[in-house]
Amino acid sequence: MFLTKNQEKMLEGEMGEVIAINMKLIVKIGEINEAEKLIPIKSAQIAGVSYFTVGEAIFSFFNLFSKEKVKVKVPSWLNPAGMDRENWEKMGISKKFAEKQFQIIEKYKEMGIETTLTCTPYLIGNQPNYGEHLAWSESSAVVMANSFFGARTNREGGPSSLAAALTGFTSEYDFHLTEKRQPTIKVNVETNLNSLSDFSALGYWYGKNFHGETPFITGLPQLSVNEAKMLSSAMAASGSVTLFHVKNLTPESDITSLNNIKERIIFSESEKQSVYDFFAQKETDFDLVAIGCPHASLVELLIIHNFFEDKILKKNVKFWVFTAQKVSHSKKFQSIQRFLERKGVEIFTDTCMVVSPIIRTKYKHILTNSAKASKYLSNSKQTKVTFKSLNHILRSVTE
Ligand code: F3S
């Protein structure tokens, strides 16, 4: 692989041992994927934050870095943690877990990483630009960056996104290259998508059936950012999809070629319904509603707020919404939160139903409008999940 003089110096340890370790990782990944060179990145989004998912192993990783005070070279943000930084006790998180979680966040902060703790950096002012190369790691954010914003990123792991942040480079392969971004499956949507969960169902069904294949989707209305994030998260979760094309939405549609299309498929009402059926349960009693996978936007919070105008939450139902802390800083949010709290709805920031340990240990039957959350939560034997539209959920848990 071609390396510039500066990159060679980094690799040989002239800029310190920690930078050399990280450069080795970037180069190794590049060699495995037959990259010809490294490219500078504009930003990094780093997963591997929740103590629930990374465990004690993360501390040995940090120890490796502790000899030198290294700082990230590009704007870098963190994925959700295992708890709300301010309201962890209210969530039921133990003090022991909280201490470990704060230590992890602090270690990342020392490296100059913004402790945003969200999978939707683009909802809090960190939107990537068309054509920029990135090293993002949260799978739904990766699809959004590629498909909605037209930036270019592979689906990085936690260590590789951190290595890219610390060196400022990633290897040029796969979704950084125009020829690797071309669609291979054409999907025509022949049913109405009436809710955010319908977009989630489309994404889930597609990913499950066409693992890793890039779709060109037709028959969709103009997608909002909320619809695109539901579609992105579900196809990434069920099928490791990294990019989708939708005419008049995906910014690079003018350079998209349909020459590589190998299959044409239809997504109709029965395919959509099959996802709801897959995550249906006989039991109608549930103990937690979990909304905000990916993290909820202000618009979604407003929809919930408006529904509760003349309703209250039924007894014995907990209703949790997850969002980014920065969303919670707006005045509009604060009035929404005060209102919803009076109705029994709790809003947590910095974490989510999947990366927090408390959901799976404390709650037995969870109702959500996210196919991605449904997939991950149902991996646990003791947790049942029902996937429904937000409107259906709101109608069934209020009076
Ligand atoms: Fe985000 Fe957690 Fe879902 S990280 S995409 S809310 S699983």
What is the gist of this entry?
This protein has three domains: 5-178, 2-Layer Sandwich (Aconitase, domain 3); 182-277, no CATH class; 280-397, Aconitase, domain 3 (2-Layer Sandwich). Helices cover 40% and strands 15% of the residues.
Write a structural description:
The protein has 399 residues and is α/β, with parallel strands linked by helices. It has three domains: 5-178, 2-Layer Sandwich (Aconitase, domain 3), CATH 3.30.499; 182-277, no CATH class; 280-397, 2-Layer Sandwich (Aconitase, domain 3). The chain contains 16 helices and 14 strands. It has helices at residues 5-11, 17-32, 51-54, 57-65, 88-91, 95-110, 139-147, 158-167, 196-209, 225-239, 269-278, 298-307, 331-343, 357-362, 371-377, 390-397, and strands at residues 38-40, 43-46, 76-78, 134-136, 169-171, 185-189, 215-218, 245-246, 263-267, 288-296, 318-323, 345-349, 365-368, 384-387. The strands form four sheets. It has a five-stranded parallel sheet with strand order 12-11-10-13-14, sandwiched between helices. Strands 8-7-6-9 form a four-stranded parallel sheet. Helix 7 (139-147) crosses helix 10 and helix 12 runs parallel beside helix 13. The chain is globular. The mean pLDDT is 96. The protein binds FE3-S4 cluster (F3S). FE3-S4 cluster (F3S) binds next to strand 10 and helix 15. FE3-S4 cluster is lined by residues 79-80, 119, 138, 140, 233, 293-295, 322, 352, 354-355, 372-373.
